C-alpha cells in the first residue's frame, strides 16, 4: 500500500505521524538511553493511539448496529498476528544459532507466551530483574510485553462496551463513567505497585489499562461532543497541539530509568498524545510536523519497525555488550529494510484477506503459530539444546574460567551465620604445612574479601603461610553499627560479634579486611565503625591489612568467550576494560594504613592495571566473574602474576611483617596448576585401559587415592578413586560425559545417587564403565582441600 492510497475517507495521517514519533523515541532509547532518557514512553503513546482508534471503531459500529465480536477479533488477527509470528519465528531461528542454552531456553519459553498473547505475563513472572536492568536488554522478545497488554485489552474492552450498550439509555455517559473508573483505578494501582512490585506495575494490564483508557475517553468524549466544536478556533487548536507536543517532549527528555513509572508520570506522554490527537485535524502546525510524507511512511511501518528493532539490538548486545555507533547505523538500516519488507509482503496482504472466518483462524493463526510453538517447545524440553551446544570440553573449560569464587568449597563465604565456621578445616588456604612460628592469619569481610582467596592461596603456598577465611555476603568487616540487608541482615548481625569474640581472644596475629568499600562508604557512621574496629584489633597486637576494592568494570559479559565460540571465536572479549581513575575509598584506606607500621594496604589493581586501563583479562584469560568480582581462576592468575612480577614480595611483607617467605619469582615450586594429563598417568595394560584413562582425563587438580584390579571368571574389574580440587563436582559431571564420548564410550544412563551423580557408559565388546561423582559432604575425603571424588568401576572381559 502506498501513502497516497492510505489517505482514504476518515484516515488521519497525523496519527501515523504520531506513531512515527512514538516508534522513533523507542528505537533511539533502546539504541542508547542517554540520547533520549525517556524514550520508553513511546510505548505509552502507542497505548493511547490504540485506545482511541479501537474505541472509535467499536462505538461507531455499536451505534450503527453493525458491530460483531467475531469480525472484531478477525480484524485483530489480520492486523497483529501474521507479522508478529514472522518476527518471533525469525528470532527463534536466529537464537538457535546464536544463543547459549540458558538464553535459548528463555527465548523459547518467551516465544510460547508471546504466541498466546501473554508475553507480559512471562516477563512479569520470569524476568530476572526489572525492565531497566542490564541483563534485560539481551532478551530478544522483551518488547512483546506491550503486545500482550494490547491483546488482553482487546479481549476485555469490547465486551465491556457491549455490556453498557445493551438495553440502556445514556449509554455513552455510562461508557465514559466506566472508562474514568478504570483509568483512575489503574493509575492508582500503578503508582502503588511501583515500589512494592515494579515488574507487575510495568508489565501487567491492570497497571497499564489507564493509558489505553485515556485514548478511549477521548474517543467517547468526541462522540458525545460531536466533534469538539470549541476547537474550531485556530488559536485554540494550535494551543492544544503545542501543549500536547510539550508534554510528550517533557516526558522523553526529562523522565529516565529512575523515574517512577508507570503511574502518575505516565500522564505526561498519555495526556500529551491525547491532546495531539484531539487537535490534529485542526492544527496547521501538527499537520506540518506529523502529516508529511516521511513521517506518515514511518508511521505506516511503525508496527513492523517496533517488532524488528528489539531483537536486532538484543543480539548485538548479546555479543558486544553495548551498541556502538557503527552497530547502530547498521542496525537501523536492517530495521528499516525488514520493516518495509514485512509491511509490504505480510502486513498489507493479510489485512486485505476476506476469507471465511474459520479459514482466517486456521491459516493466519493456528497453523503459523504451530510452526513457532513446536520448535520452541522442543528447545524448552532440551534446555536450549544444552547437550548439543555444550558438547565440547573446550566449552566447559571456558565456563570454569569465570566460575564464581563462592562456588568453591574452601571459600567460607556465608549467606547466614554458621557458628563454628572459624574451626572448619575446609576454610584454610595457602600452605598445607605452614612453617613453624608463621603467623595465624584471618581473611575477613564480605564477597569482596572472599574473591581474593585464589591470589592469597597462591601467595600463601609460595611463602609457607596458612590463611583462614571467613566472610559473609553483604556484611562489612566492622564490629559496630547496623549493616546487612534483606535476607543477609540477620546473619550479618550474628556473624560480626562472633568474629569479634575470636579476634579479641587473641586467636589471630594478622587480620586481613576486605569489602565492597564503596557501598558502605555511603552509610553514615561507617568510617567511625571501621576506625573503632581497627583500633580494637590493633589493641590485641594483631597486624591489620586492608584490601582495596578491585576495579569495577563499566560492563562485563562472563559468557563472552563461550558466546563467540558459537561463531568460531573472537578477540573482542579481551577488550572489556575500564579507565584506571582510582577510587577515593581506596585512597582513604591507603591513608589509614600509612599511619601505623603494623598496618598495610594491598590493592589488586596494581597487578592488573596500567596507567590508563584496568582490563577484565590477564594473559589472555578472563579474571572476573561479574563487573565487580574476580572469578576464582582469575584470582589464582593474579596470585601467579604477583609472584612472577615480584610484587608478591610486598604482599608477603604486608601480611607477615617480613619478607622471609619470599623465594623469588621462580622459587617455591611451580605455580602452574596440576592437571590430569591426557591420558591419565596410571598403568594401562591394554587398549581398553587406555580408552578408559583418556575418558576420565579431566583438566582439574587431582590426587589418585586408589587403583585396584580384580578378576572373577572371564570378567576383569578395575576400580579407581580420584579426589579432585578447585572445581565444583557438578562441573566434573557435565564434562565427564563429553570426555567419555570423545574416548569412544556411549552414555547409557545417569541418575542421582548417594548425594552425587552416577553415569553409566558402554564401549565395544561389552566394555562397561560406571562412574560416581560426589561432592564434599556426600563422601569422606582424604584431603581437606578436595572438592569431591570420582569413583570409576571399569568392567570388561579379561581376554580383551
Descriptive overview:
The chain is an alpha/beta fold and 800 residues long. The chain contains 31 helices and 17 strands. Strands 1, 2, 3, 4, 5, 6 and 8 form a seven-stranded mixed β-sheet that branches. The protein has a six-stranded antiparallel β-sheet with strand order 12-13-17-16-15-14, covered by helices on one side. Strand 15 and strand 16 form a beta hairpin. The model is unreliable at 1-9, 130-134 and 668-679 (pLDDT under 50).
List the main descriptive attributes of the protein structure presented here.
800 residues; alpha/beta; seven-stranded mixed β-sheet; 31 helices; 52% helix
Query: What's the number of helices?
Result: 31
Mean residue pLDDT: 87
Question: What is the SS-derived class?
Answer: alpha/beta
Q: Give the low-pLDDT segments.
A: 1-9, 130-134, 668-679
Task: Characterize the overall form.
Answer: globular
Described by strand count, sense and barrel closure, the largest sheet is: 7 strands, mixed
Distance between the termini: 75 Å
Number of strands: 17
Helix content: 40-55%
Q: How much of the sequence is in beta strands?
A: 5-15%
Radius of gyration: 33 Å
